[in-house]
Amino acid sequence: SGKDIALMCRQLSSMLLAGVTLVKALNILYLQVEKKNIKSSIKILYESVQKGDQFSEALRKQTGVYPELMVHMVEAGEASGKLDEVIGKLADQFESDVRLKAKIRTAMTYPAILVVLSITVVMVLVTMILPIFLGMFTADMELPIPTKILLAFSDALRNYWFIFIIGVGILVLAGKSYLSTEGGLYNWHKMLLSIPVLGPTIMKISAVRFSRTLSTLLSSGMSLIQALEIVIKVVGNRVVMEGLKVTKEDIRKGMNLSQSLRKVAALPPLVYSMVGIGEESGTIEGVLEKCAEYYDNEVDNSIQKLVSMIEPIMIIVMGGMVGFIIVGMLLPIFSIYESIA
User: Fold this and answer.
1) Do residues 212 and 74 both lie within one domain?
2) How far apart are CA 179 and CA 22, in angstroms?
């Protein structure tokens, strides 16, 4: 996981900065780590480096285990002779990614609980409480329209529940199939960007990933073109990725990064403005890092704002559904009272 790789990089960096050789550092890591999958992976790295392989080559051999970002940065660190510093920057990068994912996961936990709770309450009311309650009325009694709707839904859910499950399964599989295509994922990400509050939040998250990753890669000695190729793969959002592909081609043609980034509509304007300042002052890596820090704080604020909007909306929707069910249950009683009166 990202957390394990971040911890591994942090420990490895500390040992290398202290003057411990890479082989010995890997051996110490192997002895310290308790998780079996990480332990076996480090053992393979240790044996490979001990045989004379470059550390980057050892990482590359374990396909799918270590991020491409890590492999390329280690390779750049080996070429520049600054492997200890580069691994330290990798640790910073992965720790930041872990914190960002944790923020998003924490923010989405409460709305997810509300959704599950809403569905559970509605199911219990419709399938268990409603049939018992309406069983008190005679079959020839004329029920109000809301009650008829609820009764029809309750009967369908209790008698044909398997059709609902199959339907939901088909929808989920169809959605996954659509999102597994490049076009489908691009359209999905484009739609998310167009949603108020959520769209700007996603833009800020993309700005954090773009700025921090590019800063880390450039500071490790990698060329701008090479760095952009890796950033395109790790930025996450397909709309941003397509925009950065255009940026990469523009730079090949001789255009400045700040000028080309103006075409990437899915990144906030402050990004290309700060990149322009960095290009003029010759401190683009530092400026990008400051940009990442700024948008990291902005993401916190945006997520809090998003959650504060989702909570009342979910409560209103949940209250509306439960209210409709209760009204549907009470209307027949009111009808009886009216007929008696």
Assistant:
1) no
2) 42
Q: Are residues 168 and 31 in the same domain?
A: no
**Domain of 90: which CATH number?**
1.20.81.30
Quote the CA–CA distance of 61 and 49 in Å, as a whole number: 12
CA distance 60 to 171: 38
Residues 130 and 40 in one domain: no
Q: How many CB atoms lie within 10 A of CB 185?
A: 16
Task: Render pLDDT for 175-221 as a digit per residue (tens, 0 to 9).
Answer: 999 988 888 999 999 999 898 888 888 898 889 888 888 888 888 77
Helix (H) or strand (E) holding 339: helix 284-340
Res 2: pLDDT: 74
Question: What's the pTM?
Answer: 0.77
- Do 100 and 87 reside in the same domain of the chain? no
Cα separation of 81 and 266, whole Å?
36
Residue 64 shares a structural domain with residue 116: no
Cβ-based neighbours of 194, under 8 Å, separated by 6 or more: none
pLDDT of 170 strictly over 90 = yes
Closest Cα to residue 98, out of 296, 230, 268?
296
Ramachandran region of residue 32, left (φ > 0), alpha (ψ -120 to 50) or beta?
Answer: alpha
pLDDT given for residue 173 in this prediction:
94
Query: What DSSP letter does each residue of 29-77 carry, written as one string?
Result: HHHH---HHHHHHHHHHHHHHHTT--HHHHHHHSTTTS-HHHHHHHHHH
Q: Which domain holds residue 73?
A: 2-94
62 and 187 housed in the same domain: no
**Does position 257 have pLDDT exceeding 60, yes or no?**
yes
Residue finishing a domain among 94, 116, 131: 94
- How many domains is the chain built from? 2
Name the domain boundary from 76, 94, 112. Answer: 94
Q: Tell the residue number behind the tokens 């916190």, with chain if given.
A: 300
Q: Quick one: 299 and 155 in the same domain?
A: yes
Q: Residues 18-56: pLDDT tens digits? A: 888 888 988 888 888 888 888 888 899 888 888 888 888
Question: Where does residue 54 fall: left (phi above 0), alpha (psi -120 to 50 degrees), or beta otherwise?
Answer: beta
Q: Are residues 105 and 84 in the same domain?
A: no
